Give the backbone structure.
Amino acid sequence: MDDLKDKYLAAIANASDESALEDIRVQAVGKKGEVALKMRELGKMTPEERQIVGPKLNALKGEITSAIAAKKAGLADAALDERLRSEWLDVTLPGRERRQGTIHPVSQVTEEVSAIFADMGFSVAEGPRIDTDWYNFDALNIPSHHPARAEMDTFYMHRAAGDDRPPHVLRTHTSPVQIRTMEKTGAPLRIICPGGVYRADYDQTHTPMFHQVEGLAIDKDISMANLKWVLEEFFSAFFEVEGIKTRFRASHFPFTEPSAEVDIQCSWVDGQLRIGEGDGWMEVLGSGMVHPKVLQAAGVDPYEYQGFAFGMGIDRIAMLKYGIPDLRAFFDSDLRWLRHYGFASLDQPNLHGGLSR
């Protein structure tokens, strides 16, 4: 048995591949292998001889089997190493300049607007982009026959036949957030409501999805004079021009009474828009005193409280301030455009350090 052990351990150590190793296994411990034949001879031995030879044969078989398994694992590792060396491929990107990301103008202007109104005591309120038509229209005193409620202007969510639940819409303004906030906190309050809104329109100055910020202030002695002061302070801080003149023009919105369109002073010089100078005017937002029916729908007593509201397009004022000619480019995902109009990612807008670059 010592001769068998030395013979097969040496053969196993010298095996060059798994095929040769399998041949050795068959010769040694297979059904007709030498160790198996030795085990068949146990039947011809006396009980005393079997007690001595049997354990030795089992130990020999186990040692050869273990050596074969260890060699097989070694051959597999060697084959894998060789394959990794022969099939190696550099999949890393070539060296290139690392660029710092930039902030989209919509995000930047939203932060600027929030910083300005926060300085005047307004908090930021948010709400769902998909809302019921009650919050989007009815609670805002917009009648059922109003053109804004037509499917050509508003995106309605699909409803199955026979579904009698209130219809849902992609909100057409952030005014539903005002209703929800008044329902939740009551009056008095001062909030702005920035966020995405949706309307069926698409051209150089309109997109189906755009961004608005609306403001609401409710208290017992608020007037149009307060509204005018707030807006003029905002324009001066946002455009970073002192003493911007405003012009209020009578208008009509279902949710405010009286209502006013607001223009700001501007001029065109060599094709360039200049805010806060000249004899021209540009419309920038709508505003007015909150209609008593809107207060009542939100659970606020219109005989005790009154307030003002306003709304403007974030994308539009971003275009005015930073000279962006086409609103559609805001949503094209063009990296060249974003690198040109984007803002440093670590610059946080504030009134003390400066709103913009």
In short: The two ends are 89 Å apart (CA to CA). The CA atoms of residues 179 and 298 lie 5 Å apart. The chain has a mean pLDDT of 86. The longest helix spans residues 47-86.
